[in-house]
Amino acid sequence: MTLVNVEHTSRIYRQDSVAVKALDDVSVAIEAGEFTTLVGPSGSGKTTLLNQIGALDEPSSGKIQIDGQEITGLSRKKRTVLRLWKIGFVFQEYNLIGVLSAQENVEYVLMLRGVPFGERRRQARAILADVGLKGLEARLPNELSGGQQQRVAVARAIVSKPAIVLADEPTANLDSKTGAALLDMMRRLNDEQGVTFVFSTHDPMVMERARRVVHLKDGQIEREERRP
Length: 228
Known about the structure:
Elements: E1 2-15, E2 18-31, E3 35-39, H1 46-53, E4 61-66, E5 69-70, H2 76-86, E6 87-91, H3 102-112, H4 117-130, H5 146-158, E7 164-168, H6 176-193, E8 197-201, H7 204-209, E9 212-217, E10 220-226
Parallel strand pairs: 3-8, 3-9, 6-7, 7-8
Antiparallel strand pairs: 1-2, 1-4, 4-5, 9-10
Helix pairs in contact: 3-4, 3-5, 4-5, 5-6
């Protein structure tokens, strides 16, 4: 099943009255259950493409569908609702709420969805255990290591069972050992639970674990690799 369908999208920015084309007629489809990474040098367009898939940025031209829904041209409010119900995010800066515990950070998206208190607590504790954080539910972000914070971010991204999880440079602030453990955990979630992941990265560890690698250069897809 196709979860993401990007059709001939381009993105043009203005810098000092000069048009800069961040994406140039890009088309790509992401199927359910994929573990895909977008790679390329700085300025290749990988983060712009990820942001467009995540409804954080609008294409200048072209169309994007998420889980069968056309998202191009949606209002800001409708894009917010789409992200809440369809998309999970993992960022390199973690983006946890500092005054909330690990469990409360994970519960937050469920609260926004209107899940009752007892049920969202149960789900949050279960997913934190699944990512290896059992016993750390009450800790604040500043009481956790970088790797633990990123695990909380992954738990928050997947607890609501979104159609797709987008991860922008998720290992950038982690040492190699911690980053490898985090990626292995996400690969396990992909293998065992069918969670669909799309990464934007230049980290070789992510590329090694991906089943599909999409190479971008100068705003265009240069080539793809698929692995078993």
